[in-house]
Amino acid sequence: MSNLKNLTRRPEFAAFVGTLFVFLFFTYFGWPTFIKPLVTAGWLNVAAELGLIALPVALVMIAGHLDLSVGSILAAGAMTYAILTGHFGLPDFIGLPAGLVVGTFFGFLNGLIVTKTKLNSFIVTLAMMFGLRGLVFGITRLTTSTVLVSVEVSEAVKSTFGGRLFPSIQKVFDYFTGKDQFLSQYVNLRPFSTFENAIVLWVIMALVVSWILYKTKYGNWIFALGGDETSARAAGVPVERVTIALFMGSGFGSALLGVTQVALFGSAQVSAGQSYVFFSIIAVVVGGVLLTGGYGSPIGVIFGTITFAIVSQGIYSTGWDSDWSSLILGLLLLIAVLTNNTFRRLALSSGDKKVSARPVTNKATAPKEASND
Amino acid sequence: MTEKRTPYISVEKVSKVFGGYVALNEVSLEIHQGEVLCLLGDNGAGKSTLIKVLSGFHQPTSGIIRVEGQEHPIKSPRDAADLGISTVHQFGGTFPLMTLERSFFAGREPTKGWGPFEVFDSKTAGEIVVREMQAMGITRVTDGKRLVGSLSGGERQVSAIARAVYFGAKVMILDEPTAALGVKEAAHVLRIIMQAKQRGLAVVLVTHNVTHAMTVGDHFAVLIHGAKADDFRRGERTREQITDLMAGGEAMAELEAELESYRTAN
Q1: Among partner residues B18, B94, B140, which is closest to A227 by beta-carbon distance?
Q2: Which of A206, A279, B5, B94 sits a CA distance of 20 to 30 A from B202?
Q3: Strand order, beta sheet including B62-67
Q4: Mutation for testing the B interface, residue in A217, A229, A230, A239 having most B CBs under 10 Å
Q5: What is the pLDDT of residue A353?
Q6: Which of A 112-131 lie inside 8 A of B, CB atoms?
Q7: Does A368 touch chain B (CB under 8 A)?
Q8: CB atoms inside a 10 Å sphere around CB A224
């Protein structure tokens, strides 16, 4: 009983219920199409790609910041990779890491500006979103005189970043057994052929982010920073370094998705990725992260991401017009925030005795330049 | 009157000017270990500014700060922490959505393992926080995993004090610790303050509750409009004198006269 109660008080519980609900919803209305491997691959791929951004963005949001520049950074990372390899003919092992470095660098820049100027990260990353998009457009047009750069992706990159999951697994088996198409002799892989390698990257990302937040002291610093920056600073948390590192993380995640998409599609577009700005915020908030920071969990964000993916893809198996998926997403976001608030209140109320849980609105702001005693 | 000994921290003619506004005007104070110094004053009297100077958030415009007799500016909150100055704000546990063990050790986490596998030692942290809370009379806390926000205001205040004591604070600055508390909880916090004092800590208690100040205070300073209006030791002033001084004397008399005329009119 008390275990069940504890479970419901975990930050990811509401997100889990949400995922379960949309899954059952589309299983019912989309029967039997929705549960087919092809459709499952459809939403799982969307979840995996979004998850690469949503997980590091979740850390940024738990620390009380926002990152609106993920779309532009995605394009910057993808373009760097595409231009270096597709246009200048450099090998993948230079172009791909360069894309990741560029993404991480612009994340670093975000963090640096936020900590140095004390401006709200909403404004800083909004400026970055537009500024960087312009820069990517300009540089791409200057060097390649197009806005779409195609790349001849090597096999090595295809079977790790881009490409499909089961051909990659098949290759691993073939390598160790020395036979050709070893796995296909035993299992019919055809229905599973559309799962992307991004799913593996997503799992790795989830493990790393969960490790950081749950297990290390840095996780503690992130929560403290989002709870109250002034108190975190007073407690000895290196606020600036943590903030910069978190923005570097979301920059890296965005660029990782950027290069993954290049590897998958064989080309990069300057306007890629902008939809991820809001998608990532929806996934994170549906996943139970408090928009003002200080509360949330990676497991919840994984559920939030899956919920988003199921709603955006599940609609296609119902036979309804896909226009309705945005309506469902909007409603879902609203419902999710309301449910999360309820569950958070539950978590704050202690079980054994009636206590006056103080509302969480006494967030002190950064040290002001005037006394307020 | 008082024995001449070196105060742990002395503030000498410290002023702080924001733009053209003088928030602190040549304030001098002595903070001794094993004593409770009560900083009294109305809203806007400069108490918070003084605290922020002592905790390293503000730099004084003029004046000097000495630590154990040596001139020693407090340049940052980190600096203050290194000197053993710990500030507990009004709402005590300021991370309501963190677990008690995580919040208690924020910035000073016990860890085990090494390199990338160095992990937050949740077991040790939980044991310590429960032990420290129990020692301070909060016996209801038996699990370090409960959220800070689920504690009452007084319990959060006590947990913040426990944290300061546990990490070896020498000076504990308490900003209105009893302001939001009920009578019983306030009494408990005052008891904890006396315990801390007996352990040899210097306590700076900022309050505008004269009763609470007179219960635990050894030394009192009254701030009015950023300047020190009075400085006295326990027993040298009556409660009425202090209240009048804090409210600016005349203002209080005026209010009483007004109320009196209201009463006679009805």
Answers
A1: B94
A2: B94
A3: B21-31, B9-18, B62-67, B70-71
A4: A217
A5: 40
A6: none
A7: no
A8: 28
